[in-house]
Amino acid sequence: MSTRAGIVVTGTEVLSGRVTDRNGPWLSERLAERGIEVAHILVVGDRPADVLAALRFMAGEGLDLIVTSGGLGPTEDDLTAAVVGGFAGREMVLDSSLEGRIAEILRPLMARWEGLDPEAIMVSNRKQAVIPRGATVLEPVGTAPGLIVPPAEGREGPTVVVLPGPPGELQPMWDTAAETAAFRAAAGAAGDFESATVRMFGIPESEIAASLRDARAAGIDIDRMEITTCLRRGEIEVVTRYDRGQADLYRELAEHLRARHGDTIFSEDGSTVDEQVAALLDGPPQRTIAVGESCTGGLLAARLSAPAGASKRMLGGVVAYANSAKEEVVGVDPSVIERVGAVSVEVAEALADGAIERFGADVGVGITGVAGPDGGTPEKPVGTVCFSVALATGEHLTRRVHVPGDRRSVRDRSTTIAMHLVRRALRGDLEGSAVGEPAAEHRA
Amino acid sequence: MSTRAGIVVTGTEVLSGRVTDRNGPWLSERLAERGIEVAHILVVGDRPADVLAALRFMAGEGLDLIVTSGGLGPTEDDLTAAVVGGFAGREMVLDSSLEGRIAEILRPLMARWEGLDPEAIMVSNRKQAVIPRGATVLEPVGTAPGLIVPPAEGREGPTVVVLPGPPGELQPMWDTAAETAAFRAAAGAAGDFESATVRMFGIPESEIAASLRDARAAGIDIDRMEITTCLRRGEIEVVTRYDRGQADLYRELAEHLRARHGDTIFSEDGSTVDEQVAALLDGPPQRTIAVGESCTGGLLAARLSAPAGASKRMLGGVVAYANSAKEEVVGVDPSVIERVGAVSVEVAEALADGAIERFGADVGVGITGVAGPDGGTPEKPVGTVCFSVALATGEHLTRRVHVPGDRRSVRDRSTTIAMHLVRRALRGDLEGSAVGEPAAEHRA
After folding, report:
1. Does B64 touch chain A (CB under 8 A)?
2. How far apart are CA A82 and CA A131, in angstroms?
3. What does the longest C-alpha to C-alpha distance in chain A come to?
4. Which residues of B are less than 8 Å from A231 in CB distance?
5. Distance from CA of B71 to the nearest CA of A (A)
């Protein structure tokens, strides 16, 4: 039987919705990579009773491992270590050596801030050195140590891995935690699973549901695999988890999907469209890119410049929000805007051409549209977005698309559509079928 | 006693970490607005046993209300309605009138896609019309109906509000749900709570912890209120929830915080720095803004253009990633880059000036820095970022800051620092104390 785990994210600020949790999803992916099945992610406030209830629920579900994030800080509402100690039946003790190491970490930090009360800081941080007796200490990345807490001698129950809340501390500490003997003992012999991802763009999710039913009808025993489909920024992702012994079965399913949806499948190796665009630009031949964007307001430039090392391919962009900016900064002919309006395939092409010309790039992208909520007309309702990818040869790949959703969705999904058009243009596919509308959210 | 609620977010794609959940946080904020205390947010996969375990856990914790999101779609792994029906002790029945209404919704959608199998779609969507007998139906916003399911006659337990997963469907349906008699019966008479938020920029979180301890020592009975502090994109937020009868107590606390941290407090009315910058630009006097940004790659322009109606104040920006773009598109003097390097306060000022000049704006913002992971030097390590805000008068507010964290954090937090500098410059505070480093993540 495979190892099952739960994740407990503590923090009133996460529970209240004011802060988006990044740790639950990140830990879930890390556990899955080790073949450990995640059954639940539970977000709780900083109340000890609620944290304890979460741990007891997961123990009651028979989970082998619990990972917690948060509640290790210096403030009084940071109580995870004590609650986990009680849950595991272990007494809380001061680890003076750890206290000394935390003090060493704090010394340079304190020098950076003026007017701090050193006494207050020392009291706050002694608290961080009080740990369940017998726990494995994970050295602080920031100022908070992590812990691995197995049940006390003679007790049954899950081992708890206690990690700090800031992702910059939690992530490196996870790597350390996973190498400890205490973790390995709890994680046990995880199953021998493979996971494969097929990514598609330009079809509705209901089509995938139908294809899976047809696969079963055609005799492919898909119920022996765990298949999930999801919409992700306008793309559809089909993730299949299967026992390594079932590789032939997965190959049959992949073949079935390719036969039905071949032209919409853009990735079977886990790569994202962002990675594919970066690789295509890096060549050979190596090419540079620049952007002239309006309704996306900088999001496409931000997306192209997000990966480490982006500067070798990304020269820059103009966010031409005002019409005057389209004309004066990117060089769009004012008479074109006058004649067909700022939201038009003509202006999208002129923005793409202007990006090439202004930045001396090999590839230019233009986007202009109505993100809403205002500015829609009967001919160009909210969600109307025009895209163009220009190559230095003078060729264009240009589309007008109706993008569904609210302002935020229209802006975000438009960057996904642009990335797919750039990918196609870089692969030399300047004609072919229309990209069409992104997958509508049929799934509820 | 106040009403307590739990939120169950279903979806293997959320549990696995591939998709970020927006519904849990959103629902939590909506429940809090109604004075309903959220005890837990639980993310589960699409397995019926795990969804049922989540509902039973919350019932066992004595919660009055459970809100679920997701698992109402047409695919076979969408099982929430049936699980909730079983949990509430209610038989599942086909609502033929609802089936007909869903069919009406699907008709135009089907016409938009070519080559669909109408039969497959009808089978998929009949499933969506099978509901627990006696449940209140919430009409579909997309294709999936929502449900309010009280416990069956003679049973005890929480009422379950069943909502679809896509935020664009869930959010409008929530408003409908909250007006129904079934919801009101379950939510009961919620407490009479107030919530107040103090936002600060430029101090470490441990200082707030010390201030709260001092407040208690000074006789302010803070334990009669629920106070949470959190770091949010480099800002610190102190949120206090208190019974309306305790307003004087909260006023004492707010006065205490103001006395100690006055110059770092930028908001006490719930407003964000983004909203304050927008309001300051909208005037009087009305002013326009433009950006010349390098290491943030478009994120500042995207942030300024995010609100509805941004086009009246935001003219645009140049993402000057390559040095050639800084020179040719924004007009930075090449000899300056030659002399002091692209990451320098001089180039930040030139980018701000160039933004004003190129876009004809009243206010210009320049950002240049080392986002990493490569490109750092001993003098300018990764995280070194230079900012300048220029006014049309020729005045500047310019800072060099060391921003902590990885590439993603440096890019994101730099936009927060820039927003605070813009705010200060627009308020006419061009000198004063240095903005300093953003709050380090002391909290764990």
Report:
1. no
2. 7
3. 83
4. 166
5. 6
| Encoded tokens for A70 | 């948060």
| Residues paired with residue B9 on neighbouring β-strands, in sequence order | B43, B69
* Rounded-to-integer distance, Cα B109 and Cα B25, Å: 30
Instruction: Report CB contact under 8 Å: B325, A316.
Output: yes
What are A314's strand-pairing partners? Answer: A289
Chain A residues with beta carbon closer than 8 angstroms to that of B209:
74-76, 120, 124
Q: Is the ipTM of this complex over 0.85?
A: no
What would the DSSP string read from start to end of A382-425? TTEEEEEEEETTS-EEEEEEE--S-HHHHHHHHHHHHHHHHHHH
Query: Which residue intervals of B118-246 are DSSP H helices?
Result: 118-126, 167-178, 181-187, 205-217
Residue A440 is predicted with a pLDDT of 36
* Cis status, amide bond into A285, omega within 30 of 0: yes
Please tell me the total number of residues recorded for chain A in this structure: 444
Q: Is a pLDDT exceeding 70 seen at residue B442? A: no
Element (H, E) at A318: strand A314-320
**What was the pLDDT predicted at B243?**
81
* Strand partners for A162: A68, A147
B435 contact partners, CB below 8 Å, separation of at least 6: B201, B202, B399, B401, B417, B420, B421, B424
Count residue pairs from A and B with Cβ separation < 8 A.
385
Chain B residue nearest residue A40, CA to CA: B44
Q: Looking at beta carbons, which residues of chain B come within 8 Å of A209?
A: 74-76, 120, 124
pLDDT of A437: 42
Residue A243 φ/ψ region, left for φ over 0, alpha for ψ in the -120 to 50 degree band, beta for the rest: beta
| Each residue's pLDDT tens digit, B313-333 | 999 999 999 999 999 999 999
Alpha-carbon gap: B38 to the closest alpha carbon of chain A (Å): 7
Contact B219, B249 (CB under 8 A): no
Q: What is the pTM of this model?
A: 0.76
Cβ distance B43 to A46 less than 8 Å, yes or no, reads: no
Judged by CB atoms within 8 Å, which residues 240-279 of B form the interface with A? none
A74 interaction partners in chain B (CB closer than 8 Å):
205-206, 209, 442-443
Q: Is B393 on the interface with A (CB under 8 A)?
A: no
3-state helix, strand, coil in chain A (%, to 5): 45, 25, 35
In this structure, chain B runs to a length of 444
Weakly modelled stretches of chain A, pLDDT under 70: 1, 76-77, 109-116, 189-192, 432-444
In this prediction, residue B116 carries a pLDDT of 67
pLDDT 10s digits, B387-399: 999 998 999 999 9
CA distance B380 to chain A (A): 17
What's the pLDDT score for residue B120? 73
Q: Find, among B151, B153, B152, B96, the residue nearest to B125 by Cα.
A: B96
| A contact test, residue of B305, B328, B362 with most A CBs within 10 A | B305
Q: Which two tokens stand for residue A185?
A: 């003992």
What share of chain B has pLDDT > 70, as a percent?
93
By the 8 A CB rule, do B51 and B80 touch? Answer: yes
pLDDT at residue A202, rounded to an integer? 87
In A, which residues are within 8 Å of B74 by CB distance?
Answer: 206, 209, 442-443
Q: B443 falls in which pLDDT band (50, 70, 90)?
A: very low
Q: B77 exposed, middle or buried (CB, 10 Å; 0-12, 13-18, 19+)? A: buried
Does residue B246 register a pLDDT over 90? no
pLDDT at B184: 86
Interatomic CA distance for residues B356 and B330, integer angstroms: 10
Between CA A436 and CA A444, with CA A440 as vertex, the angle to 5 degrees is 165
Q: Long-range pairs for A381-386 at CB < 8 Å and ≥24 separation?
A: A382/A410, A383/A410, A384/A343, A385/A295, A385/A343, A385/A410, A385/A414, A385/A417, A386/A343, A386/A344, A386/A345, A386/A347, A386/A348
